[in-house]
Design a protein that fits this description.
Blueprint (H helix, E strand, L loop, with lengths): L9 E3 L34 H10 L3 H10 L14 H10 L3 E6 L2 H13 L6 E3 L4 H6 L1 H13 L7 E6 L1 H5 L10 E2 L2 E7 L8 H22 L14 E5 L5 H10 L5 E6 L4 H8 L3 E3 L6 H9 L3 E3 L5 H16 L3 H21 L5 E6 L4 H10 L3 E7 L8 H9 L3 E4 L3 H11 L3 E4 L1 H9 L4 E3 H5 L8 H14 L2 H11 L17 H5 L3 H6 L6
Parallel strand pairs: 1-3, 2-3, 2-4, 4-6, 7-8, 7-9, 9-10, 11-12, 11-14, 12-13, 14-15
Antiparallel strand pairs: 5-6
Helix pairs in contact: 3-8, 8-10, 8-11, 12-13, 13-19, 14-15, 16-17
This protein binds iron/sulfur cluster.
Length: 523
């Protein structure tokens, strides 16, 4: 067995010096026995080549399932962070869950760094490899040794092992790991960048794998009850990570229907998975959880899309939930009569004026846009890195009926083209979109940190959203002042450190803003 070396940050399971040919990883070799050409590949190694190697290595079934669950197009893949970050983050947020990555050191470094940047404060395990351990099967043995060492039931309910790009392309067969060791579940998932388009969808890869495991356990017999069993009403499981106040707000909206908010999936604890499955219906608040929906549907649960945002959204959602849970139509009408005036008043009290473009990769972009429109904003474009989905179709149709251009699987180019075309008063977007907007003195807000991180649902949504939006819109004069002050800095003759003066014609006309600042120019 390999020595276990716990570190604060990454745990490594060093490979032995002498490779062992007897590993259970025959699939890792190409059909001709040669080393898979994926070794040394990665984000920039060529998607087609990685896919071909993965297919040769026996991972066609997994990739075909991903292609069906997370369809690409209109282009191959949105620009996004490494997809594995999504599943890594889900695992790191769960209590009593250990996380082990297997991939190229540079990938693991980046993922570990990012997870700690976002405050994981949990150890990330790492099983390194080299081309010998990869092709001889020794890597699989190292992974198996690692999970055997980690599987302490006093500490863990589950261990999540994630194959990154190269081990996936090489066919490292995590499915051959034991399903349980001393009662600790072993969940092996492949999350290659060439098969899972976004980090959002990678969350579903892990959530779906855990739900499948939990569902199998439920079918075999009694399982532990949730620790915080707070209701005896039928529950609605909420699919998608959301601001912590939102499940509470949703619970209040469900009360008049005789229902309660159930667990949020991805869950924070293993036993919550059982409670999530034991629901009256599932609300796909985020629309990209295809594998998770498959598990809920296999358990006989109805799934409804969209979410209770704004007045129209809440009304439609209450009807859909009532229908899925068999609530009497009169009770749904009574609930709407009781709840909608409060939301309407909240919308009226928090108006937003201004032209806005929205883009992001969280999956809630269409919901945010609906709420913006109901607050009065002139939303022209919404782009989401997530695919078109039956769970967000109603939102898309609602927005398009109001003249909003909706682009699913939007690329950065789509988002920037919208910025150029619509010249918004405020751009909500990803980092490069925000950067581009600010360069043009357009106020901009980062979707993930500033929009996703506040309540959207029920009466609390309008006030929370309008506050941040209106504050940003009111900052236009600061952008104008900054643009005037910095005009010309970092471009042309003022870009970089020159070994020689720029050509005379480039330096001849000092930027107007430089003159205003009283700067001398190199001519
Ligand atoms: S694991 Fe992530 S960072 Fe590494 S090659 Fe794949 S997509 Fe890129």
């Amino acid at each position: 067995m390999t020595d276990f070396a716990p570190l604060n940050d990454a745990v490594t399971f060093p490979s032995p010096e002498v490779p062992d040919e007897a590993g259970g990883i025959a699939e890792a070799k190409a059909a001709d026995g040669a080393a898979p050409s994926s070794v040394g590949g990665g984000c920039h190694g060529g998607r087609a080549e990685m896919r071909r190697a993965a297919a040769v290595a026996g991972h066609s079934e997994t990739l075909d399932r991903y292609a069906a669950d997370y369809p690409s197009g209109p282009h191959d893949q949105p620009q996004s962070m490494c997809p594995a970050f999504g599943s890594l983050r889900v695992g790191l947020r769960m209590r009593r869950t250990a996380t082990v990555l297997c991939g190229s050191a540079c990938c693991v470094y980046g993922l570990t760094f990012t997870s700690h940047f976002y405050g994981a404060r949990r150890t990330v395990g790492y099983v390194p490899f080299n081309s010998e351990t990869l092709v001889t099967g020794k890597l699989f043995e190292d992974i198996r040794d690692a999970v055997h060492q980690l599987a302490d039931p006093a500490l863990y309910d589950a261990i999540v092992v994630t194959n990154l790009c190269v081990p996936t392309a090489s066919g490292v067969p995590l499915r051959l790991l034991p399903k349980q060791i001393r009662g600790v579940r072993i969940i092996g998932i492949d999350v290659p960048g060439f098969g899972v388009p976004t980090h959002a969808e990678a969350k579903d890869v892990l959530a779906g794998a855990m739900l499948a495991c939990a569902r199998a356990e439920v079918e075999q017999g009694p399982v532990p009850a949730p620790r915080d069993l707070r209701t005896d009403r039928p529950t609605v499981t909420l699919l998608g990570e959301m601001f912590p106040a939102d499940p509470v707000a949703i619970g209040r909206l469900l009360e008049p229907l005789g229902l309660a908010a159930g667990p949020v999936v991805p869950t924070r604890e293993w036993r919550e998975l059982y409670a999530a499955l034991d629901c009256a219906a599932v609300a796909a608040i985020h629309p990209f959880y295809a594998a998770s929906v498959r598990e809920f549907e296999a358990a006989g649960r109805a799934v409804v899309g969209s979410a209770p945002v704004g007045c129209d959204g809440t009304a439609a959602w209450l009807e859909a939930v009532g229908d899925a849970c068999g609530v009497a139509a009169s009770a749904v009408t009574a609930a709407k009569t009781a709840l909608l005036p409060t939301i309407r008043a909240a919308l009226a009290a928090n108006p937003i004026e201004g032209r806005i473009t929205v883009s992001g990769y969280e999956g809630s972009e269409l919901l945010v846009s609906r709420l913006l429109v109901e607050c009065g904003a002139d939303v022209r474009y919404v782009g989401s890195a997530c695919p078109r989905s039956r769970w967000s179709d109603a939102d898309r149709a609602w927005l398009e009926a109001r003249g909003v251009q909706v682009r699913c699987r939007a690329s950065l180019e789509d988002d920037l083209a919208a910025l150029a075309e619509f010249r918004p008063n405020l751009a909500i977007g990803t980092t490069p979109v925000v950067q581009k907007a600010k360069q043009q003195a357009i106020p901009a807000l980062y979707f993930t940190n500033l929009i996703s991180a506040r309540p959207l649902m029920g009466p609390a949504g309008p006030a929370a959203l309008a506050h941040v939006i209106n504050t940003a819109l009111a900052g236009q004069h600061r952008f104008d002042a900054m643009k005037e002050f910095f005009e010309g800095v970092g471009t042309g003759a003022t870009a970089g450190i020159w070994g020689h003066w720029p050509p005379a014609d480039a330096a001849a006309a000092p930027p107007a803003a430089a003159k205003r600042r009283g700067e001398s120019t190199p001519c």
